[in-house]
Amino acid sequence: MVPATLKRQMKDWKTADIESVYDFAKGQLAVNRKEMLPFVVELSQVMFANNQQYEDGHDEELDTTDSITDIIMSTVEMIILPHLEVLDIIQQ
C-alpha cells in the first residue's frame, strides 16, 4: 500500500517509474521512517524480483552462446587436426 505521505508529496506517483518512486520514498525515510520503511522494503523486493525475472529471461541467450562456441571449436579443430596429423607423420 502506498503511504499517504508519498501520495501527498509526489503528485505523479501513479505514472512515475518504480525507480523514481523508490528513490523518493528512500529520501523520505528520515522524515517518516515508521510510515515509509515498510513501503521501501516492499518496493525493493518488487524491484529485485523484477530484476531476477529479467536476468532469468536472458539465460536463454547464454544457451545460444554455448552453441556458437561449439561451432567455433569444431571449426578450429577441423583446421588444426590435419596439421597435427601431418606433424605426427613427420615426427615418425
Straight-line distance between termini = 80 Å
Average predicted local confidence, pLDDT: 82
- Number of H- or I-type helical stretches: 4
Report the oligomer.
Answer: single chain
Q: Would you tell me the structural class of the helices and strands?
A: mainly alpha
Helix/strand order: HHHH
Count of discrete domains: 2
Note the beta-strand portion.
under 5%
The main pleated sheet reads as: none
Cα gyration radius (Å):
28 Å
Give the fraction of residues assigned to helices: over 70%
- Stretches where pLDDT is under 50 for at least 5 consecutive residues are none
Secondary structure elements and pairings:
Blueprint: H1 4-9, H2 18-27, H3 33-57, H4 59-91
What does this structure look like?
The chain has 92 residues and is mainly α. It folds into two domains: 1-57, no CATH class; 64-92. 80% of the residues lie in helices and 0% in strands. It has four helices and no strands. Helix 2 (18-27) runs antiparallel to helix 3. The N and C termini lie far apart (80 Å). The mean pLDDT is 82.
Summary tags:
2 domains, 80% helix, 0% strand, 92 residues, single chain, 4 helices, mainly alpha
